């Protein structure tokens, strides 16, 4: 993720003033009031996935207010959604107060007045999601002004985990894949909002599809690692081996077969481009530790040898 702002390297006396300027530049115009400005510290790191902006942010205790004058200068129509890694934030909007923490996320509208009360130090992933993109995925009567999302189970947990994975692997995700991941994240958020607190059994099929997609994206980001064991995949995605195998029944393919399938597909694409890299280096880059094994699997799947593809017109 790109570092947008960090109080480190700024003399303590100027940190809070610098932070106030950074908030107004990075987000929409707001008023910021820190509890202890002389002790302020924070940072903002940002990455974009298509229409979704993902921010990793550290906040000291403060209040953030957005009023009618700020809204009048609004240049975008979006929602903000935060998943706290630690700390607590109260979101006051439209006569309601949402209490967010590591177990509950919150979504709120940038086009309505709001107040954020950051209680103590907190760190969170913030998402900026275009309003029309989210609204198009929801029934008209389910489009919120603000809402809480349970991040301890079901689709809320999937959304929070997906968000954390995107932040962690941001530098390794390139090109069109970034836009696709952003769109998938909006899909999951919309499902989480529709599911509410008690409808998870009714949406079990949607939960499993979203969970499978989340796991597949994690695997995609680690395809180049030869020792990509199923135990590690299950552990990294907070599930049992049995549940991992169950998820992949939706693909009519085992987890291991899907991994080799994607490794071969990506290798095929790179070899076909003939960008100057050797076949051996491409194979090793995608998790194969033997060029002969790679050639055997490649020929079995595509009916030609890798070197024949690299020479074809």
From TrEMBL:
InterPro entries: AraC-bd_2, AraC_XylS_family_regulators, Homeodomain-like_sf, HTH_AraC, Tscrpt_reg_AraC-type_HTH. Keywords: DNA-binding, Transcription, Transcription regulation. Residues 213-312 form the HTH araC/xylS-type domain. PROSITE patterns: HTH_ARAC_FAMILY_2. The keyword Transcription regulation applies. Signal peptide: none annotated. GO terms for molecular function: DNA-binding transcription factor activity; sequence-specific DNA binding. It comes from the Bacteria. This is Helix-turn-helix domain-containing protein.
């Amino acid at each position: 993720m790109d570092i947008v702002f960090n109080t480190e390297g700024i003399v303590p006396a100027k940190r809070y003033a610098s932070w106030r300027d950074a908030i107004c530049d990075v987000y929409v115009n707001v008023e910021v009031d820190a509890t202890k400005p002389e002790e302020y510290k924070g940072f903002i790191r940002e990455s974009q996935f298509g229409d979704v902006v993902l921010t990793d942010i550290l906040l000291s205790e403060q209040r953030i207010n957005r009023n009618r004058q700020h809204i009048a200068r609004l240049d975008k129509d979006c929602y903000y959604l935060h998943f706290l890694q630690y700390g607590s934030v109260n979101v006051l909007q439209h006569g309601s107060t949402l209490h967010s923490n590591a177990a509950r996320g919150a979504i709120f509208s940038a086009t309505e007045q709001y107040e954020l009360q950051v209680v103590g130090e907190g760190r969170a992933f913030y998402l900026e999601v275009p309003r029309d993109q989210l609204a198009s995925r929801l029934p008209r009567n389910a489009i919120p002004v603000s809402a809480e999302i349970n991040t301890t189970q079901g689709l809320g947990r999937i959304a929070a985990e997906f968000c954390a994975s995107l932040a962690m692997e941001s530098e390794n995700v390139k090109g069109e894949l970034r836009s696709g991941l952003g769109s998938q994240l909006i899909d999951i958020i919309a499902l989480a909002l529709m599911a509410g607190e008690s409808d998870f059994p009714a949406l079990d099929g949607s939960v499993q599809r979203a969970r499978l997609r989340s796991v597949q994206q994690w695997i995609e980001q680690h395809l180049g690692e030869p020792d990509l064991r199923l135990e590690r995949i299950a552990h990294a995605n907070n599930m049992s081996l049995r549940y991992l195998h169950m998820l992949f029944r939706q693909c009519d393919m085992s987890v291991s077969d899907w991994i080799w399938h994607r490794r071969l597909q990506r290798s095929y694409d790179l070899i076909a481009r003939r960008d100057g890299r050797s076949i051996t280096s491409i194979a090793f880059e995608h998790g194969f530790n033997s060029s002969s094994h790679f050639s055997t699997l490649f020929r079995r799947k595509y009916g030609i040898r890798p070197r024949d593809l690299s020479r074809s017109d």
